């Protein structure tokens, strides 16, 4: 059983101008697909061939297999990232909104903190909104292929701060990309589902 390469959950132009169609065609269709293809090539014929992507990531991390970890973690991170965004949103509500206000003061304050964390993140990586076992929210950062697919935090949403995520649309001005996404395109329904479930999102199967 191969790891699936999931479709985007919206048309390629749905996030424009924050993220344009050309960026998504390249980022999803080439970068993400390459990670999935390399993961599948690495696990073919091994004891991980039928494992879930989360199990593959954990095994690669435990074994110190950096190549497999990078490709499998990036496969997961990208799928989670696509779902973290939406063409439009009405803001969070219910328990998630209450948790945001408790942790950050307001939804706007959270957006500003995500923007600040992303702008200040050195080089490539990811910025996450996550919850701990008690439902308390925090902003987390991982470098390069680092992921919250494993570990003790429950990721609710993520922002990709690798340069290829925004360069075609915003050149080297990462803060413009972050502001556009956090103010207009956060998928709060997805974040709320992850928060309510209380466990780490599962990568879609083929």
TrEMBL record:
Pfam families reported for this sequence: Sod_Fe_C (PF02777), Sod_Fe_N (PF00081)
The entry marks the following residues as binding Mn(2+), namely 27, 78, 160, 164
List, for all copies, the residue spans of the domain called Manganese/iron superoxide dismutase C-terminal. 92-193
Q: What class of enzyme is it?
A: oxidoreductase
Keywords for the protein's UniProt record, in alphabetical order = Metal-binding, Oxidoreductase
Keyword Electron transport in record: no
Task: Tell me one GO molecular function of this protein.
Answer: superoxide dismutase activity
The EC number(s) attached to this protein equal 1.15.1.1
Catalytic activity as recorded in UniProt: 2 superoxide + 2 H(+) = H2O2 + O2
Q: Which residues form the Manganese/iron superoxide dismutase N-terminal domain?
A: 5-86
| Gene3D superfamilies given in the database record | Fe,Mn superoxide dismutase (SOD) domain (1.10.287.990), Iron/manganese superoxide dismutase, C-terminal domain (3.55.40.20)
The UniProt entry, under PROSITE patterns, shows: SOD_MN
**Key word Oxidoreductase present in the record?**
yes
Q: Which family does it belong to?
A: Belongs to the iron/manganese superoxide dismutase family.
Its annotated function is as follows: Destroys radicals which are normally produced within the cells and which are toxic to biological systems.
The record's PANTHER family line, in alphabetical order, gives:
SUPEROXIDE DISMUTASE, SUPEROXIDE DISMUTASE [FE] 2, CHLOROPLASTIC
For this entry, the protein name equals Superoxide dismutase
Species lineage: Bacteria, Pseudomonadati, Pseudomonadota, Alphaproteobacteria, Sphingomonadales
């Amino acid at each position: 059983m191969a790891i699936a390469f999931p479709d985007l959950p919206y048309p390629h132009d749905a996030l424009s101008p924050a993220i344009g169609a050309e960026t998504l065609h390249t980022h999803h269709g080439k970068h993400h697909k390459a990670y999935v293809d390399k993961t599948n090539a690495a696990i073919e014929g091994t004891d991980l061939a039928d494992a879930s992507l989360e199990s593959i990531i954990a095994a690669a991390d435990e074994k110190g297999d950096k190549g497999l970890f990078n490709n499998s973690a990036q496969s997961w991170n990208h799928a989670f990232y696509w779902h973290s965004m939406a063409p439009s949103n009405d803001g969070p509500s219910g328990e998630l909104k209450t948790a945001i206000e408790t942790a950050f003061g307001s939804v706007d304050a959270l957006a500003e903190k995500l923007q600040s964390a992303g702008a200040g993140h050195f080089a490539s990586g990811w910025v996450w909104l996550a919850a701990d076992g008690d439902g308390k929210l925090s902003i987390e950062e991982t470098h390069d292929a680092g992921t919250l697919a494993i570990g003790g935090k429950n990721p609710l949403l993520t922002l990709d701060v690798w340069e290829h995520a925004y360069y075609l649309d915003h050149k080297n001005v990462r803060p413009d990309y972050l502001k556009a996404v956090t103010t207009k395109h956060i998928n709060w329904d997805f974040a709320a589902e992850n928060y309510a479930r209380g466990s780490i999102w599962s990568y879609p199967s083929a």
